[in-house]
Amino acid sequence: MRLLVHGSGFKKPSFYRSDAEELRCGKPREIGGNPKCHWFPSSVDLEALGKSSGGSVPAATIAELLDVIRRQSRGSIEELRILGHANNTFFALGGVIKADEIRFDEPSMLGGSASFLAAMPRFRELFDRFAPRAQLTLIGCGTGGTDGGLLDLVSRTIVLRVAGFKKPIQYAIDGVTPLRHRVKLANGDSGWRIEEDARITVRGKVMYSYAALQIENMFGGDLVTRDAFGTNAWDLKPDAESRAGVMIWNAAFRMKLGGYHDAITATEVGWRLISEFHQAKVDWVAGVGYEEQIPGLRVLYSQGKALIHVGKKFIEMTNPVTLDQRAREMGEALDFIANHKEGVILVKQS
């Protein structure tokens, strides 16, 4: 199943007192426009895009998003796409739209927000709602703009492959302006003046195109053909992804299925726990090995070099819900190394 969710917490700005006011936003002054206004899609537009894409479910906060996921059948979600506003640090389901910016609401922000990090255990508990090799796609401006940024953090938190978009996503509205007054523009072109009884006819138009973005940046948005816009969120092709959160789990899962040799998989799980959760301490460890019978992790030294051995029980008890606990136990092993100690760290239930 493909599941589409739209951010429902972006109220239509109060400074749009009519359709005509909204159509004027960002348009040339000569045709009655307001060039000091920057039009952003509100939840009305995101919902319209969801409807034209086959339907979408509203969510204004992280708590509501979790509830949407909880209501799905186990193993049913093959891809979850979320429509919202974003930058390369946060993806938001709600906020306040102003004439020149959008301010995100903290309870709606996926990323390094307190609300999202506090929800990590609940996301992990709902991992079973997703099918094998499932994907989350964040449809927002610049979600994939910085390596090691938002996509990596979200992937580690929800233990899924997460895709995004490196550049801004463009939205548009179409309207009908009564053809009463033809006005000449400063650049020599002409256009119809936006009258008070102008009305919006189509919402939910969206586009993601490098070529169109470059044309808009160089010559202005009016040169971007409306044919480039569509009304189906599933047609947008992400160009960035992170698998940071799935590598450890996938390795452990392969071992449980017998798909990889135990020693190879245990080594991979150990190294990934260190590199993903304890990046600054990678150089402390000369090697990671496998020791089937130990009930956790063992720290030992060989020729003065620190080694960490991973036991079979440690791998068997690695899953999305227990991933943080396994990371903490690896942290304990690294503390042993910091204090030049040898010993065993027992695997815990939770």
Describe this structure in words.
By secondary structure, the protein is of the alpha/beta class. It has 2 domains: 2-169 and 233-242, no CATH class; 247-346, no CATH class. Helix content is 29%, strand content 27%. The protein contains 11 helices and 20 strands. A 6-stranded mixed β-sheet has the order 3-1-4-10-11-16. Strands 17-19-18-20 form a 4-stranded mixed β-sheet. Strand 5 and strand 6 (90-92) form a beta hairpin. Helix 9 crosses helix 11. It is elongated and about 85 Å long. 40% of the residues are buried.
Distance between the first and last residues' Cα: 31 Å
Number of domain modules: 2
Mean pLDDT: 87
**Unreliable runs:** 218-224
